[in-house]
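ok so for the tutorial part 2 we go from a plain amino acid sequence to predicted structure tokens. step 1 is just haveing the sequence, like this:
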Amino acid sequence: MAEPIAMPRLGWTMEEGTLVEWLKADGDSVEAGEILFTVESDKALNEIETFSGGILRIPPDAPQPGDTVPVGALLGYLLQPGEEMPTAPPTTPTAESVPTPAEPAPVAKPEPVPTPAPTRSAGPTISPRARRVASELGVEWRALTGSGRTGRIVERDVRAAAARSGQAAPAILTTEADATELVTLRPQLKSEGTPAPAYHHLIAKLVVVALAEHPQLNASETEAVHLSLAVDTGEDLATPVIRDAHTKTWAELAAAARSLALQARRRALEPEATQDGTFAITNFGMYGIDAFTPILRSPYRATLGLGRIAERPAVREGRVVPRALISLSLTVESGLLESGAAARFLDRLRSLIERPELGLQD
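step 2 — the prediction. this is what the tokens look like for a chain of 362 residues:
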């Protein structure tokens, strides 16, 4: 029996949504749990998955990507092999066709409908969020037993599996760097028509320099550095990746970071733009956060957290003077702590921040 696909209601107040794109083409085979299309509501971009399997058929007169569609409007069908697509969408009863209390409608005994043979593929289904978390934590979800509705794998199943994996807890190192010279240097780097780079853009360049000397922290089989800089979109943290950051000057790196951040906030990032990073940086200093512990996610070996740069008292040549200080927090695989590589990297990064001209020479 043809299963209609309709514009879903994604919130109590939602009356319509924009069909952004189909992720399956007309005539494609679809398995339960796969994402069919994306919808933009007034709050977010949403991935819509199917709980059934079949063959996707999109009527010629169906709404097109970019169209604003009322909740409940027909978008397409899921058909079983050999089944024909209905020639007209199912109709909604009108007010005239609904019997009134004074004139009750006869109730007909429904004819039994044969149950079609199940077409779901073997194996469990998983929610999009659980799939994303499994990828981040390196969990093979196909071997899990789901605790969600109809046996579906949900996020708690993935996190429980990660906790049972017996992996050693990541190690955390912290230090404080004197960023006074970096603060002094930044305005001098402003060029005509180009704003001064953000502090975390300059520190990102210094990270690349330090990784060249301590490649153990770079999750790459080559010397390439693909740098992930977290971006606050207002709803979550996006993690776009600057490809081949080791080949870029500080100005090129800052320009690439600005472009990716703008795409992230507009929710225009392509899926591959957040993949294959080899080192991650998160900056919460812009929110007045002094220090925090960044979360280490697979496949990264190390991730750096940046606190705010704040003027605080420091001892210089036996005197207490105001200096611009920044807290650095590094979360790494435990083996990098035991080998000393993480401590050497963080010490080198601290020294580069305190003498930034050594790492920012193009």
